[in-house]
Amino acid sequence: xxxxxxxxxxxxxxxxxxxxxxxxxxxxxxxxxxxxxxxxxxxxxxxxxxxxxxxxxxxxxxxxxxxxxxxxxxxxxxxxxxxxxxxxxxxxxxxxxxxxxxxxxxxxxxxxxxxxxxxxxxxxxxxxxxxxxxxxxxxxxxxxxxxxxxxxxxxxxxxxxxxxxxxxxxxxxxxxx
Length: 177
Prior knowledge:
This protein is an alpha+beta fold. It is about 40% helix and about 30% strand. The chain has six helices and seven strands, in the order ββαββααββαβαα. The protein has a four-stranded antiparallel β-sheet. Strands 6-1-7 form a three-stranded antiparallel β-sheet. The chain is globular. The model has no long low-confidence stretch (mean pLDDT about 95).
């Protein structure tokens, strides 16, 4: 069930702003499995929840490791509004998991066995570019589709300069106004 590589150079078929969430954990004490394993399993549960309900806005994710201690997920979202809506939806697992964590921390029972982190970015059109060589749709291209690089520009500077129709209209309005 491996995706076949697309031959040659391709780029992501993105239009408009891109929303990226990096979220992860760091195992501070390997022996405290009872502390960090539930955190890791919670991430899998949230990803499953989002996969079952595509309308929530998660387009794609990539799971990575930075070291034997640090694990994270790169997530591509439809919009920051959908990301916020998921994070605050009381019926979703993320909301319940954070309530438990916040109670644990407030009670002084968070012992530093596992670290949590996230970084969220809204990247305006014209401030990102991508290139893939002999790769299946991956990362940004996995989230937004993949096109031959010539459709967006052979060079990075050309891909950065690419504007969708809506983006070109917005840029023209900014210059005029």
